[in-house]
Design brief:
It is a single chain. By secondary structure, this protein is of the alpha/beta class. It is 53% helix and 12% strand. It folds into two domains: 228 residues, Alpha/Beta hydrolase fold, catalytic domain (Rossmann fold, 3-Layer(aba) Sandwich), CATH 3.40.50.1820; 202 residues, no CATH class. The longest helix is centred in the C-terminal third of the chain and has 23 residues. The radius of gyration is 24 Å and the shape is globular.
Length: 470
């Protein structure tokens, strides 16, 4: 499975030159075949994304002869500068991102060429505003789009793609289409004077999987081809399935690797139903109510300060209760920690190359270290509670923490609503790294797994969310 997935992923990159450059502080990647002289396409990612997440669109466009540029927005990916400004005002953060995009375009294009724009989620509003300010913008592709700047007359050449499982954004795409032709339906192209508009639903897709949808990528390529009078004959490789196959294969293959660790005797924690209820419910209530009151503003990452406190309180409370119940935490096994960290690093390298940024800039390292203050005790407690336990017991353990985050959001929605974006990251973490950690814990005890995964969780959170400075 791993080898097959790698073949697909590398074939999708075949014959493309990747050139890394910087426009000011903005990291930019140029995708192009040798000698390519096709039109220029600029690609922008969504909130909490990175340029790697947009490879599904960049690669087929580059193989079709286009010169493609993808970049990291402020505070995202490998950009070293933070986002700033008022996120609720178009004259705040939005204005800064529009100016950043214009600088990237001006730095790498000639003034007499017509460029194409393609963006996802947050970037869709940015690109519509960029197009309104420029005279050199041609076809635009907006994926999972929302922008109040779209009207019946602009943008001129617009394709909107929404996931079939994104009802709100899918409805917005249809509404934008019907601004041009009130009778138009999804899947049709409407023409009105100089305005050309099309809305498409990508089947079996939501807000993230749409980035690998073959239907969506084919539609994007065809729309840009049509605008430039080109006809491309390139394969749209199933890179989404290949990414899942590669990452799942790395998780599965870790099981026989973990069996090479010397088996070490340890006592499996045994809790009564009442004790289990206490160890799950008490921190679920205590963590959000106390952390909301103690919340600070030190780390330049959205909701990071609060999350560190929440993780710390949740984990410490669980460890104290376990101690009261007489649960012993066995000493760590250094080789086991090393093997698990190495396996997580391999997974991270694959993720970074094919799917999303996983490697931090130097400025994020101290943030990761600060996050570890909370993630390590939390993951140690989690490892103790889930080692050699049933699926239901593990599920309830993780739901306890996710519910505590939900309580925190309810207590201070305005300040903490970004915690809602962390839930999917944690669920993925439980499935991937939690699986590998449990296999290690079953061999040598939970402490080794908890310590290693605490560091990995700090890393994952430290690289996933945007740098933001008020």
């Amino acid at each position: 499975m791993i080898l097959t997935s790698l073949v697909v992923l590398e074939r999708a990159r075949q014959d493309i030159n990747f050139t890394r450059l910087e426009v000011g502080e903005t990291p930019v990647t140029h995708y192009a075949k040798a000698g390519a002289d096709g039109p220029v396409v600029f690609i922008a990612h969504g909130f909490a994304g990175s340029q790697q997440m947009m490879q599904g669109y960049a690669l087929p466009l580059a193989r079709a002869g286009y010169r493609v540029y993808a970049f990291d927005f402020l505070g995202h990916g490998r950009h070293t500068l933070s986002m700033s400004g008022d996120v609720s005002s178009v004259d705040g953060t939005t204005r800064l991102l529009v100016e950043q995009t214009n600088k990237v375009i001006d730095a790498v294009t000639q003034h007499d060429e017509v460029i194409a724009l393609l963006g996802h989620s947050m970037a869709t509003d940015i690109l519509v505003r960029v197009a309104a300010e420029r005279s050199d913008v041609g076809p635009i592709v907006l994926i999972s789009a929302f922008s109040q700047q779209i009207d019946a007359s602009k943008p001129d050449e617009l394709l909107l793609i929404a996931g079939a499982w994104e009802p709100g954004l899918r409805a917005f795409a249809r509404t934008s289409l019907q601004m041009v032709d009130a009778g138009a339906i999804e899947g049709e192209t409407s023409l009105n004077s100089s305005v050309s508009r099309r809305a498409v639903a990508a089947p079996f897709s939501e807000h993230v999987s749409i980035l690998q949808s073959r239907v969506a990528r084919s539609e994007a390529l065809a729309w840009i081809d049509q605008a430039y009078g080109r006809k491309s004959d390139v394969s749209i490789w199933p890179t989404g399935w290949a990414i899942l196959g590669l990452l799942a294969g790395l998780v599965v293959i870790f099981h026989p690797v973990s069996q090479l660790l010397p088996k070490r005797a340890f006592a499996v924690p045994s809790l009564t139903l009442g004790q289990t209820a206490l160890v799950l419910l008490v921190p679920m209530v205590v963590a959000p109510t106390s952390a909301v009151m103690l919340n600070t503003d030190i780390l330049p990452v959205l909701v990071a300060d609060y999350l560190v406190l929440h993780l710390l309180v949740f984990g410490v409370v669980q460890l104290v209760i376990l101690r009261i119940f007489g649960i012993r935490i066995w000493p760590p096994v250094l080789p086991a920690i090393g093997v698990l960290l190495l396996a997580c690093a391999v997974f991270g390298f694959a993720l970074d190359r094919y799917a999303a940024n996983f490697w931090p800039t130097g400025g994020r390292l101290w943030i990761i270290a600060a996050m570890a203050i909370g993630t390590v005790p939390y993951m140690v407690a989690d490892a103790v509670l889930t080692v050699s336990q049933t699926f239901l017991r593990r599920l309830l353990t993780r739901l306890s923490f996710l519910t505590s985050l939900g309580i925190a959001v309810a207590l201070d929605f305005e300040a903490l609503f970004f915690l809602l974006l962390i839930a999917p990251v944690l669920v993925l973490f439980y499935f991937v790294f939690g699986t590998m950690g449990r296999q290690t814990a079953n061999r040598v005890g939970p402490l080794s797994s908890g310590l290693a995964l605490g560091l990995v969780l700090a890393w994952a959170l430290g690289v996933s969310f945007p740098l933001f400075q008020v």
